From TrEMBL:
Keywords: Dipeptidase, Hydrolase, Protease, Serine protease
Protein name per Swiss-Prot or TrEMBL: Dipeptidase PepE
Catalytic activity, EC: 3.4.13.21
Name of the gene this protein is made from: pepE
Family designation: Belongs to the peptidase S51 family.
A GO MF label: dipeptidase activity
Pfam family, one: Peptidase_S51
InterPro entries hit by this protein: Class_I_gatase-like, Peptidase_S51
Organism field: Flaviramulus multivorans
């Protein structure tokens, strides 16, 4: 049975790394001692080791150990043996490229579908959807394709931003870009605002946090859903 947290972000304004969701993670990882961290999306200017250390320091607050997948000789074996997995943020195209390069896309999908607890933030959340076509990131590398893990039956847009009515910027809004996605694609898209996450248990997908999410469905007007809404009907 799937056991997944798909979070919009790792850090909200005025808070430390993962601090806003640590209470949830204490329960989520209650039966876990060590978390396998996949740092492949790493933000610019930070090494895999430094990124893993940052994550490790956050999880020390809830008495969890962290090991970076890059420290293992066999990443497939590391995933198969993991108690739990965390994929952090950065660039979604880089992350997807590295997953395919290391031949771990399918094994990661299979272990999570088999019940290994999975936490994703930002890029690590983008790959939970059907494709990475609704990421906000620039395509700075070219992965073999845009297919993601398909752990949920829709696409995700983390860091969803509402239009700023006071802005003088006349370019595309986030909503405009998602509507453009639907000119060529039909899967629903969930716009996850900062501090929100999806809790997936088996076939149940529930919006968590304090903010509503914006739902985009093909050939329909976008609409809002409140926290604690069940979303497994989207497909």
């Amino acid at each position: 049975m799937q056991n997944i947290i798909i979070a919009s972000t790792s850090t909200i304004h005025g808070s430390g790394y993962l601090d806003y969701i640590l209470d949830e993670l204490t329960v989520f990882f209650k039966n876990v001692d060590t978390i396998l961290f996949i740092p492949y999306a790493r933000p610019s200017g930070i090494s895999h080791d430094d990124y893993t250390e940052k994550v490790s320091n956050a999880f020390k607050k809830i008495n969890k150990s962290v090991l970076g997948i890059h420290s293992f000789e066999n990443p497939v074996e590391a995933i198969n043996n993991a108690e739990a997995i965390f994929v952090g943020g950065g660039n979604t195209f880089v992350l997807t490229y590295q997953l395919y390069k290391n031949n771990i896309t399918e094994v990661l999908k299979n272990v999570v579908k088999g019940g290994t607890p999975y936490l994703g933030t930002s890029a690590g959340s983008n790959i939970c959807g059907l494709t990475i076509k609704t990421t906000n990131d620039m395509p700075i590398v070219y992965p073999p394709n845009f297919n993601a893990l398909a752990l949920v039956p829709f696409n995700i847009n983390p860091h969803y931003l509402d239009p700023n009515i006071n802005s003088e910027h006349m370019g595309e809004t986030r909503e405009t870009r998602i509507k453009e996605f639907h000119n060529f694609n039909t899967p629903p898209v969930i716009g996850l605002r900062e501090g929100s996450w999806l809790k997936v248990e088996g076939n149940s997908i529930i919006l968590k946090g304090h903010l509503a999410a914006r739902i985009f469905e093909y050939n329909k007007m976008p609409y809002e859903v409140n926290p604690e809404t069940e979303l497994n009907h989207l497909k």
